[in-house]
Design brief:
By secondary structure, the protein is mainly α. It has 3 domains: 2-45, no CATH class; 51-92, Orthogonal Bundle (Arc Repressor Mutant, subunit A), CATH 1.10.10; 95-139, Arc Repressor Mutant, subunit A (Orthogonal Bundle). 68% of the residues lie in helices and 0% in strands. Residues 94-138 form the RecX third three-helical domain. Pfam families: RecX_HTH1, RecX_HTH2, RecX_HTH3. Residues 6-43 form the RecX first three-helical domain.
């Protein structure tokens, strides 16, 4: 059990992990599921492992490139609970402003044809921005 804790702490010193992510990394080294859960519970009680902190850091790190939908999807895939995701999303700032920033880096000018407009919308949708944020940016609203 001590070896498992040391291995977990070594991973956590590099970066934060979600509980599910850390459990996956440590599973091969644990003698039993119960031992692994006990180590993870201890780390959580000591606040060394926190899904809330992980979600907030992940949102801050990736919000400059992605919209809320994409951030939610990524956090769910990492096993973060919906409550923690909802608490972390405001850390990324205003989605419309982020959308405008991404759009300006990629395209710089408003679309001149329906084809160009569709291309820009698809790009921003792929990045996970809401249709409302995309609509505001492509209309040139709030400039």
């Amino acid at each position: 059990m001590a070896d498992l804790r040391v291995r977990a702490l070594q991973l956590l010193t590099r970066r934060d992990y979600s509980r599910v992510e850390l459990k996956g990394k440590l599973a091969a080294h644990a003698e039993s599921e119960e031992e692994l859960d006990a180590v993870l519970d201890t780390l959580q009680s000591e606040r060394l492992l926190s899904d809330e902190r992980y979600a907030a850091q992940r949102v801050v790190a990736r919000a400059g490139r992605y919209g809320n939908a994409r951030l939610k999807q990524e956090l769910r895939q990492k096993g973060v609970a919906d409550d923690d995701i909802a608490a972390a999303l405001p850390e990324g700032g205003d989605e419309t402003e982020r959308c405008r920033s991404v759009w300006q880096r990629k395209f710089r000018e408003l679309p001149q044809s329906p084809e160009e407009r569709a291309k820009q919308q698809r790009f921003l949708q792929y990045r996970g921005f809401s249709s409302e944020a995309i609509r505001r940016v492509l209309r040139g609203v709030e400039q």
